[in-house]
Structure formats: structure tokens, C-alpha cells
Amino acid sequence: MPVEVSILGFFAPTLLPLLVVCVACFIVIDLVLARFGVYRFAWHPGLLRVSLFAVLFCGAALLIHR
């Protein structure tokens, strides 16, 4: 995978578009988990949200940059 991606003439790191995609996926997953009340069972809901995003982003980055 290339290290930089050209977006409208602007060279951005490869992880920037990946970050945008992961944020969109995280918002959808977060809304679904909140709708079903999963956060009621968590010890610290904010920590669960941060860890969910970290798992999504790091997992996607590892898949891309193999």
C-alpha cells in the first residue's frame, strides 16, 4: 500500500482516509450498542467506547499495512 494518498491534489497519509472510515463505522456501531442498552452493563461506558474505537482503528490499520 502506498504511504501517501492524493486527495484533490493534497497528499495525505494512508491512515487519514482509514481514520474517516473507522469513525463512520464506530458511530454506527455505537448507535446500535446504545439502542440495545449494552452500555448499561459496562463498568465505564466511556472507556468501552474508546476501546471499541481503538480496536476498530488498529485492526484496520494492521490489515492495510501488512
Helix percent band:
55-70%
Low-confidence stretches: none
Number of strands: 2
Radius of gyration: 15 Å
Structural class: alpha+beta
The separation of the N and C termini measures 9 Å
Brief rundown of the structure:
The chain crosses the membrane at residues 6-34, 46-64. By secondary structure, the chain is of the alpha+beta class.
Explain this structure to me?
- The relative contact order is 0.15.
- This protein starts with a strand and ends with a helix.
- It has one domain.
- It has a two-stranded antiparallel sheet.
- The chain is elongated and about 45 Å long.
- By secondary structure, the protein is an alpha+beta fold.
- Helix 1 packs antiparallel against helix 2.
- The longest helix is centred in the middle third of the chain and has 21 residues.
How are the secondary structure elements laid out?
Layout: E1 4-7, E2 10-13, H1 15-35, H2 45-64
Antiparallel strand pairs: 1-2
Organism: Paraburkholderia edwinii
Keywords: Cell membrane, Membrane, Transmembrane, Transmembrane helix
Pfam families: DUF1656
Q: What attributes characterize this protein structure?
A:
single chain, 66 residues, alpha+beta, two-stranded antiparallel sheet, 12% strand, transmembrane
